[in-house]
Each structure stands twice: as C-alpha cells, then as structure tokens.
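Good morning C.,

I know you're traveling, so I'll keep this short. The sequence:
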Amino acid sequence: MSSTIDRLARMEKLLEHLAEESAEAPIIVEGKNDREALRRLGIGGIVFIVNGRHTLFQMCEDISREHKKVILLTDWDRKGGQICSTLSKDFAANGVRADEKIRARLSSMSSGEIKDVESLPRLVERLRTMGKR
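The tokens, ready to paste straight into the viewer:
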C-alpha cells in the first residue's frame, strides 16, 4: 500500500513537472488519443501530433521555426522508441533541444503496466484507487 502511495506521489509530481514544462515547450505525441489523455491529466500547453501528412523531418523543421525546445512523449513501445530517436535527431539538426527525460521516467514508473501515453490517466486512477484501500 505504502509503495502504491509513494508511486502515485512520484507519478503526480512528474505529471505536475510536465505541466509546468509544457508552458514553455510543446509536447510531441503520436496520436490524438495521447493528446486527449494529457488534457485529462490537466496538462495544457501546445501538443503536436505526429501524423502522416508530413515527414518527421518536415514536422521538426516547422516546429523549429517557433520553438527551441520540445518534450518528446512518444509511447514506450518499440515503434515509439524509433519515432523518439528519429525526432530527437531531426530536432537536433534544426537546432532544437529535445527533452526525452520525462518520457523515460514515465516508462520506468509505469513498471510495464502500460506502454503508451493514452493509458496514463487509467494508470493514475488505478493508483489512486489502490492508495485509498
């Protein structure tokens, strides 16, 4: 129980940090369900969605015109890791710092229970429910 409460506290603190960071730097996610999940968690700010209309590099070029830092929050499955790696390189090529730390910490904190951003609200809710028992 105590470890659940500790885990919930760490998760909520990280999500609060993400909300603060998103006021300054846009978040990049894979899909609209990911953006909706962030909104349900109270994270505002600009959220860009990776889509098929442009190449990842074109997307990075467009974003780099307005921003010098971004937060990469792709899923923590194999495909999400590949997208994160590509985006990181493409943003660097455009002079933009890509923060991957929050993604890595969320992946670690989820302990294999979830593998995507859209499942975060369910995980947080489950931890809250378990912590009340």
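Safe travels,
E.
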